[in-house]
Amino acid sequence: MEHLSKQQIVLLTLLVSFVTALATGIFTVSLMNQAPESVGQTIGRVIERTIEAAVPQSASVSDIFTFEDRIANAVEKVASSTVQIKSKDDDAIVGMGLIVSREGVIVTDKSAVARARGYFAVFRDGKQVPVAIIQSQIDGDIVFLAPFPPDIFLNRLITPITFAVLPKLGQTILSLSGTSTQILGQGIVTETSATIIQTSIPRSKVMIGGPIFTVNGEVIGINLLSINSGNEINSYSINALKDVIPVIRK
Question: Is the confidence at residue 74, as pLDDT, over 90?
Answer without folding.
Answer: yes
